[in-house]
Design a protein that fits this description.
Blueprint: H1 2-16, H2 20-33, H3 38-67, H4 71-76, H5 81-105, H6 108-123, H7 131-151
Helix pairs in contact: 1-2, 5-7
InterPro entries: UPF0756_TM (IPR007382)
Main location: membrane
Family: Belongs to the UPF0756 family.
């Protein structure tokens, strides 16, 4: 019963935080808990991380196809400070994420902390659970710091 209350609270908090993805996810999981069948939950737990990663990677590859002939222009865009910091941030976050997945799978306490922290960040603080956005956020902050340093010099 406690898990259902938590899911309801997550859905409500997420709704008020204008995070429709978390609201929808919480509602779907809540509905599945009423079936008293563990199979759908076990299926989600086993496969949805990989399925989500596939969809995320597909989303990341679409601009390559959409840009078509202008891919050379996109590569040239990497040669400025924003492009270089973004490229390095993307590499850094991808490597950290790969290490983090192994770390998560090996430790229940780490998994609990990351999941609860992510849920709080997503539902209450308007966060988003995706690596490329983290890379963009890191890149933004690094570029901001670089600009502050060099504008003041």
């Amino acid at each position: 019963m406690l898990c259902k209350i938590i899911l309801i609270l997550l859905a409500v908090f997420s709704f008020f935080a204008k995070n429709k993805n978390m609201s929808i996810a919480a509602i779907i999981i809540l509905i599945l808990t009423f079936s008293n069948n563990e199979k759908p939950l076990l299926f989600i737990e086993k496969y949805f991380l990989d399925v989500g990663m596939i969809f995320l990677m597909m989303w990341m590859l679409v601009p390559i196809v959409k840009s078509g002939d202008s891919i050379v222009t996109n590569i040239k865009n990497l040669l400025n400070i924003n492009g270089m910091v973004s490229l390095l941030s993307g590499i850094f976050v991808a490597v950290l994420a790969a290490k983090g997945i192994g770390f998560l799978k090996g430790s229940i306490d780490v998994m609990s902390g990351v999941i609860i922290g992510s849920i709080v960040g997503i539902a209450l603080l308007g966060g988003a659970p995706v690596g490329p956005l983290i890379a963009s956020g890191i890149a933004y902050e690094v570029v901001k710091i670089i600009n502050l340093i060099f504008k003041n010099s």
